[in-house]
Known about the structure:
Blueprint: H1 5-20, H2 35-48, H3 71-80, H4 83-97, E1 103-107, E2 110-111, H5 118-124, E3 131-139, E4 145-153, H6 161-171, E5 182-184, H7 212-226
Parallel strand pairs: 1-5
Antiparallel strand pairs: 1-3, 2-3, 3-4
Amino acid sequence: MRESRLVRIAKLAYHIAQQTLPTYSHPKSRHDYTFPQRVACVMLKIYLNCTYRDATDQVRQALQLTRVPDHTTLYRTFAKLSQQQWQQLNDALLQHLQVNEMTVAGDTPGFRHDTASAYYQSRCGRTRRSWHKGGFAVGTESQLIVGMQVGRGPGSDAKGFAPLRAKARRDGVRKGRSARFGLLADAGLDGRDVAWTDGVPPVRRGGRLRAWLRVMRAELVERAKASGL
């Protein structure tokens, strides 16, 4: 009988977590579940975009669990994972799938660091003065994150372009020093580190582009738009 896609994803998440993380998060924990089992449930919850209560019922057998972890256990597991561990999990996934991209798309969205809704903020008359800012480079073929970084806002998105490019080249782009790849992004990432071959619309300060590299990049972006990219 053919396995469902959900079970295959659960097994892959469990395999990646086993390779990357320690068996138990603390030597004196109760050891009811291994740390990779709990992390696999968390990753599946993120993939399904569901609540912690609904994340584990369908994968009990795939993760070799005698009983399903409580939703509070999964919440604490998510809170315990560090940025470095998330990076290690993502690197292991890219290596396992042998991701090899030639074009990646980048963006730097902002995330609030509290649970207050926009409606509550507007009623209270408060404005957010800072927020979390994530930089992500996603492979256009695999649709996987090949580079990521975390920062704080407000601030210029262009500052994160160079490190995001370096992480994408290291983890998900074809290997070799001379290997070139294209990075697509909006005008918010335009800056000195953008190459003329990148699909990043140049910001027109004063209404006119003077540097010939920026002119060439603008023409490249217009051609890409005309071709439906």
